[in-house]
Each structure stands twice: as structure tokens, then as C-alpha cells.
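Worked example 3 (structure in, sequence out).
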């Protein structure tokens, strides 16, 4: 069960990263088509913050929870 939960958490976080990366690509390639965002750089910053959040989650999961119990890496 532990492995399935870890895989599900990583899949969710990676899916969110992909979604927000796609949003940034839309802003970068067609900023005029996004009428509700008058400040494109601010909108991109919001998307980058969301990517950072989920990226951090994947790193924490991999660092602290993907190893068998008792086998922690020292850093």
C-alpha cells in the first residue's frame, strides 16, 4: 500500500506540474489571447509558483518517503 500511495502522490504532483507548464506555454506563445490577464508577467509568476510548489512536493516525497524505512540518505 505504501508504494501505491507514493506513486499516486507523485503522479498527482507531476500532473499539476504539467498543467501549469502548459499554462505558461500558452502565455508565452499567445499572450494576446488571454484577455482576462492584463499583467502577463504576473500571471506567469503565479503559474511558476504553482510549479515550484508541486516540484518541491516531488522532491520531498523522493527524499524522505521513497526509501525503505530506516534507509535515509544523509545530507
Amino acid at each position: 500500500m505504501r508504494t501505491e500511495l507514493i506513486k499516486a502522490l507523485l503522479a498527482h504532483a507531476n500532473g499539476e506540474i504539467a498543467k501549469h507548464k502548459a499554462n505558461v506555454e500558452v502565455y508565452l506563445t499567445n499572450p494576446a489571447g488571454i484577455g482576462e490577464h492584463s499583467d502577463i508577467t504576473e500571471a506567469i509568476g503565479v503559474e511558476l509558483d504553482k510549479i515550484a510548489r508541486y516540484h518541491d512536493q516531488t522532491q520531498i516525497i523522493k527524499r524522505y518517503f521513497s526509501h525503505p524505512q530506516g534507509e535515509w540518505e544523509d545530507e
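Notes: Residues 70-75 have pLDDT under 50 and may be disordered. The first helix runs from residue 2 to 29.
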